[in-house]
């Protein structure tokens, strides 16, 4: 009779070893997902934009945890708050890094900053977080100095809406840029902008948004393509990346040189960067890692807010056009305070309905519907599924914010969702800022800026549908969004002062503050 050991086949040949690997891969059950094609996987099923909507459709069939592959790269899509928090927060020690992001990170250069920096075993990442917490953490955002800048620049927004309301989206973008440039560099772009910093920053941000779009660049799936010379046929991405990198280099260098020059002259405005340079006594020191980090911190702050805040403000205006009852209710709450002045950040707790509008803006159209990608740095198991090392992990924030169980009738703009503190809706909306170690460090600054803009616009203006000059009929805008940083498609509306009193309130305060 043969022994038991003799009856067990021995894996000695390469084919046996390969077969055993295949068997193990089947035993380790991968998350479900749409079937793909050999080699290219699901590449042809990836839309060029608004990927979150396609992934939302797939969730209905495949569930909260899906897997797709693009040219051999495994991608995990998380479509529930629980899965996103369990992995990206609960297991943040292995899910907090970024994928290599060859186009955006390496070729364009955004890996120098916070957004694409690796989080684990990276001293620079910790220094970034420390600096941002010091500059704009919850305590810093309570400072009068910081709020004065936000309120003065917001007054500039109101003044521009009075004089030229039709280009409201442009005003939102310019005033957001102005606020960030003042806070970060002490640079006042509204006085002629001699350094063209607004244009430099806008160009760099356009490059960031384009370079970060999932599935857009073949080089992200085939990293070896980064070695192809730019003159080679089909290598136009190299020329595009070179142009984007030039824009980013300007965003790094121009404002940094401005601050150092002003500090040497002794005529500088206090800013995040000037305080950082003073802290490290760098005014006359040679270039070193602190200087590079300071440049990167400025670019990271700008990239985090320059497009997302205008997106939120434009979404708010769209919502007020479509939901006049919400506008009326908020205005009644503001009027009941009888402030005799414009609302300020310190009034936030006294305006719960207006604060609920802010939360609903974050939910209704998350400015970055997919956030930024994570990568898992070791094999993992979750809910019976095997997640292999090196998988790119996306949280579909748009789907989380449109979950019908949590937010009934999710396409409806309804601030009342947040008036019951026991239902947990407010905490869920915070996920619009990301998860765990990668949560947006400018969250408190953004919340204050958006609250201030919304409260003051509601106090001063009525927002309504535009009227067709030919037919005389009201124009109802569509709720459609585009872009990796998601903005409403252009729409028309009517923005008018509620009364002569509210108009004069803006003009008088602008005169006092020389805005």
UniProtKB/TrEMBL annotation:
Entry keyword annotation includes Metal-binding: yes
Pathway membership, UniProt: Secondary metabolite biosynthesis
Annotated keywords: Heme, Iron, Metal-binding, Monooxygenase, Oxidoreductase
SUPFAM superfamilies found in the cross-reference section: Cytochrome P450
PROSITE patterns in the record: CYTOCHROME_P450
Origin: domain of life: Eukaryota
GO MF entries: heme binding; iron ion binding; monooxygenase activity; oxidoreductase activity, acting on paired donors, with incorporation or reduction of molecular oxygen
Residues at which heme binds: 440
Organism: Armillaria solidipes
Entries under CDD domains matching the protein: CYP64-like (cd11065)
Keyword Nucleotide-binding: no
Pfam family, one: p450
Family matches, as InterPro entries: Cyt_P450, Cyt_P450_CS, Cyt_P450_E_grp-I, Cyt_P450_sf, Cytochrome_P450_fung
Family note: Belongs to the cytochrome P450 family.
Name of this protein: Cytochrome P450
Needed cofactors: heme
């Amino acid at each position: 009779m043969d022994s038991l050991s003799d009856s067990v086949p021995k894996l000695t040949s390469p084919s046996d070893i390969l077969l055993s690997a295949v068997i193990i891969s089947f035993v380790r059950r991968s998350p479900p997902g749409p079937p793909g094609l050999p080699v290219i996987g699901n590449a042809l099923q990836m839309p060029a934009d608004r990927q979150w909507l396609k992934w939302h459709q797939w969730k209905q069939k495949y569930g909260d945890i899906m897997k797709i592959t693009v040219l051999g790269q495994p991608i995990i899509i998380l479509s529930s708050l629980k899965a996103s928090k369990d992995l990206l927060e609960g297991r943040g020690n292995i899910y907090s890094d970024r994928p290599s992001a060859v186009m955006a990170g390496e070729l364009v250069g955004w890996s120098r900053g916070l957004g694409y920096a690796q989080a684990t075993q990276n001293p620079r990442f910790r220094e970034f977080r420390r600096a941002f917490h010091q500059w704009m953490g919850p305590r810093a955002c309570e400072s009068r100095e910081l709020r004065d800048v936000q309120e003065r620049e917001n007054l500039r927004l109101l003044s521009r809406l009075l004089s030229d309301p039709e280009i409201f989206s442009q005003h939102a973008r310019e005033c957001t840029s102005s606020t960030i440039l003042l806070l970060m560099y002490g640079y006042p772009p509204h006085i002629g902008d001699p350094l063209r910093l607004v244009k430099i920053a806008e160009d760099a941000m356009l490059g960031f948004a384009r370079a970060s779009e999932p599935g857009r660049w073949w080089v992200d799936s085939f990293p070896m393509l980064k070695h192809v010379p730019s003159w080679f046929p089909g290598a136009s991405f190299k020329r595009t990346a070179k142009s984007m990198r030039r824009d980013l280099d300007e965003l790094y260098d121009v404002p940094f040189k401005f601050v150092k020059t002003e500090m040497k002259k002794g005529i500088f405005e206090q800013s995040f960067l000037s305080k950082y340079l003073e802290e490290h006594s760098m005014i006359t020191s040679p270039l070193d890692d602190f200087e590079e980090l300071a440049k990167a911190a400025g670019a990271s702050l700008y990239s985090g807010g320059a497009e997302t805040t205008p997106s939120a403000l434009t979404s708010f205006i769209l919502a007020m056009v479509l939901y006049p009852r919400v506008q009326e209710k908020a205005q009644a709450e503001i009027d009941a305070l009888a402030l005799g002045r414009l609302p300020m950040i310190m009034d936030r707790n006294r305006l719960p309905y207006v604060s609920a509008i802010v939360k609903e803006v974050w939910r209704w159209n998350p400015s970055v519907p997919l956030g930024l990608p994570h990568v898992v740095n070791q094999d993992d198991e979750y809910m019976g599924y095997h997640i292999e090392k090196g998988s790119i992990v996306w949280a579909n924030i748009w789907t989380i914010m449109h979950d019908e169980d949590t937010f009934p009738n999710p396409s409806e703009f309804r601030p009342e969702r947040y008036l019951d503190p026991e239902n947990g809706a407010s905490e869920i909306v915070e996920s619009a800022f990301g998860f765990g170690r990668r949560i947006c460090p400018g969250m408190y600054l953004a919340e204050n800026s958006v609250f201030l803009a919304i409260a003051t616009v509601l106090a001063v203006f009525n927002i309504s549908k535009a009227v067709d000059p030919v037919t005389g009929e009201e124009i109802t805008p569509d709720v459609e969004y585009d872009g990796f940083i998601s903005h409403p498609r252009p729409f028309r509306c009517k923005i008018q002062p509620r009364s002569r009193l509210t108009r004069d309130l803006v003009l008088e305060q602008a005169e006092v503050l020389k805005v």
